[in-house]
User: Fold these one by one.
Assistant:
Number 1:
Amino acid sequence: MEQCIARPATATAPLPARPPMLEVRGLDKHFILHMQGGVRIPVFEGAGFEVRAGECLTLAGPSGAGKSTLLRCLYGNYLVQRGSIRVRHRGEPVELVGAPARRVLDVRRATLGHVSQFLRVIPRVASIDLVMEPLLARGVAADEARARAEALLARLNIPPALWALAPATFSGGEQQRVNIARGFIAEYPVMLLDEPTASLDADNRSIVIQLIQDALARGAAIVGIFHDEEVRAAVGQRSYAVGHTEAAA
Ligand SMILES: Nc1ncnc2c1ncn2[C@@H]1O[C@H](COP(=O)(O)OP(=O)(O)OP(=O)(O)O)[C@@H](O)[C@H]1O
Ligand SMILES: [Mg+2]
């Protein structure tokens, strides 16, 4: 048990608090289904939290609560109706709500990674190229990008025979591991993970837990959705309940 020892204020200068890598304030999201009579689907209201370097915040809530929607809003895939999303990018907080597309793309290239639950398969693009792409986009030389992609695919137990193949025919778990390799290769300072272990067996789940722990150790700030209690316990430090007030009542 950690002890709290009172010290005189002058004993040592306090360590400067680490600034938040991600700061979310007052975020509202609803969907309007224009093709279905304009039905309004409230998802969350006033969502807010912050995540610092080396921290993992897990999103909690029942199916349909809005966890994936919140991650997609943080990545800029969905617009929000109100609120602020600030990401620390190249040492400065950058507001993503209302930001021009080129700024969002720059933040994604250098700072913000997103591992969706399912791989978006692009026909005829080899797995190794999918995994290398985030490094190439940053200007890393092709040889180095390839070597790092191979090392990560090997670590995730994707057999070398599959590296040159497009993942359309891969099993669900293989596709998920290619997706994880693509999401982890660039060592983003802020990472959004949507059920990255949902289709994995116990051995591969442990490897992904280790990858997440390595990312936290190098100082990544992570927001994750983990269906699996074992994964949550291994990597999560705090939890945030997603939902709107009507659903919570
Ligand atoms: N593109 C969309 N258009 C309209 N409604 C949507 C859209 N995406 C999500 N929703 C709705 O938003 C709500 C939240 O969905 P979301 O996928 O975020 O839930 P979740 O908490 O991730 O659930 P699960 O645990 O099942 O993955 C659901 O009612 C869903 O129908
Ligand atoms: Mg979801």
Number 2:
Amino acid sequence: MATDDFNIGPQYLPSAPAGEAQPLDTRPRTMFRAPFCADIDALDADVAFIGMPFDQGTLGRPGARYGPDALRDAPRAYSYSDPYGAGQAADGFFDADAGDELLRGVTMADCGNVFVTAADVIHNFNRLAGVVQRVAGRGAFPVILGGDHAITFPAVAGLARYAPLDIVHFDAHLDYTHHYNGAMLTHGSPIRRCQELEHVANITSVGIRSVRRGPYAEAMAHGNAVITARQFRERGPEAIAESIPIGPNLYITFDVDVLDPVQAPGTGTPEIGGLFYEEARRCLTALVRRANLVALDVVEVAPPYDVSDLTAQVAARLIADILAARFPSRPAPPAGP
Ligand SMILES: [Mn+2]
């Protein structure tokens, strides 16, 4: 048979339903394509995303200011509304392992980015703290999209309503240096600054593998728990999650450099010997299921150093995983006629 003897002709081609294809994707460029919220005082959603395009705290390689929009552009696993289906919001996404839709019926909104002004760290931090406070005041679950790790301090400062608040900190680094040549608010000190807040109780750092003796000794002296990346791998994700003390309220700060740079190269300070996605997912899921998680930040995604958007992809996927563990799916609506 000659190669041009066969053509897929009309007899083989089903026709798509007429009039159903849309010429334009008019959804806003938001996290998970959730609705955009222009007025926090009218916010009405289970989950609210807040972008913090700030890297003025970075000691080494900058670029985390591009993190929030990279996270918004990344998700392929989950879209809040189905562009090819009915366009219905909060349908959730099908998970073959769960045999069900995750995040079905969980409402979300993207509140945009905090206005970050050049060379004005205190004002930028006050804006974030105020926005987080207002979002939480609306009863929504804040997800702060960083930004370098310095932003965790103002984010946590805005959550005094959740006293006593425990922090579980996923990171390659301890971020516990008191100051860098007098600078107190860099991304090398946010956990130390959080420890000084009245409403913060227990702090557990997980995945640590690059730390100096001084800050490590100070974290120990302050009663913090430190779990190294090697201990994590030896004991396993679930055992680690079970070992973390759980109080009434939990905040998770997830520095993407806790992951191995093979899976998450797009960050300013990569460290070899980190967690892989599946390990992180299992630990986070087990932890969130046994705690009252009140807010989350994901920081240090730095797109200029990324490869194939890997880092933004894995970070966005972990946000969906954490939210799915935090917010069980609601019953499916009855099938239509
Ligand atoms: Mn960090």
